[in-house]
Design goal:
Elements lengths: L1 H8 L17 H16 L3 E6 L9 H11 L3 H11 L3 E3 L2 E3 L11 H9 L1 H8 L4 E6 L2 E6 L2 H18 L9 E4 L4 E3 L2 E4 L2 E4 L1 H20 L4 H23 L13
Antiparallel strand pairs: 1-5, 1-6, 2-3, 4-5, 7-8, 8-9
Helix pairs in contact: 1-4, 3-4, 8-9
């Protein structure tokens, strides 16, 4: 039912072209290409990359409901979304409705996540002297001047404060773009792109988890190795596809 609702309202909720995760906006691959082209054509010197700590779980339900009522005339869809918002959860035999947050594993959530930050996208998407990109709760700002970046950061944090959000300190990067920065698992430098160290570390952690799970399940060494090889094949396809559109990149740089 919620998938049906998502299909009905997909064109009604506002979403900005700079929000790459929305269907039809190019996705992560296109965002990587746009960032690379911006660096090559405009020579941005400074970068600020951050994300919202616990974005989904800190969304204010009443804010989402106001957004939905303002843009969706179909009252059936509005009522279903209201039920989706004010869900009940069970914890140790006790049922309650969380004060904040929306479900993550739902077709509606990416649409809500994109629309809720639409004013942020509108402001930074038209800001002179800078480049802006967003993928769900990940934000990237490139500027020529340091004071432009400081002004942009102050404004971005102002939007976060209004929405009750805060940045994730472990996923925030600020400084000169020439030193390299991570965007969507890709490491950008003046010489080209490669898979970011964070993505490589996550891959290693996932392989270790697969090995440990296979041992706990009593699988043979051959079965565990086959499972890990399948994961490696999928990961390499993801990595190669992510940097495929960047002229300076090659498929060899994607492999670990």
């Amino acid at each position: 039912m919620l998938k049906w609702v998502a299909l009905q309202i997909a064109e009604q909720l506002p979403s900005h072209e700079r929000c790459a995760h929305v269907k039809g906006h190019g996705g992560g691959r296109q965002s990587v290409v746009q960032v690379w082209n911006a660096l090559q054509s405009s020579g941005y010197a400074f970068v600020y990359r951050t994300d919202i700590r616990g974005y989904y779980r800190n969304i204010r339900k009443e804010q989402v409901l106001s957004l939905v009522k303002a843009h969706i005339p179909d009252q059936v869809c509005v009522k279903l979304i209201e039920q989706y918002l004010y869900y009940s959860v069970e914890d140790a035999g006790e049922f309650h409705t969380p004060v904040f947050g929306i479900c993550r594993g739902c077709a509606l959530s990416p649409l809500i996540g994109a629309s809720l930050l639409y004013p942020v996208d509108c402001h930074f998407g038209t800001l002179d002297g800078s480049f802006y990109a967003r993928y769900m709760d990940d934000f990237l700002v490139l500027t020529h001047k340091r004071w432009h970046l400081r002004r942009a950061i102050k404004r971005l944090h102002g939007y976060f404060d209004q929405g009750g959000f805060e940045t994730h300190p472990d996923k925030t990067q600020l400084g000169r773009a020439a030193k390299g920065f991570d965007w969507l698992g890709v490491w950008f430098t003046p010489d080209g792109v490669s898979i970011a160290p964070r993505a490589l570390a996550n891959r290693l952690a996932k392989r270790e988890a697969l090995f440990a799970r296979g041992c706990a399940q009593g699988l043979t060494k051959a079965a565990i190795e086959e499972r890990m090889q399948l994961y490696d094949a999928r990961w390499n396809l993801w990595a190669e596809g992510l940097i495929k559109g960047v002229p300076a990149a090659s498929s060899a740089s994607a492999r670990a």
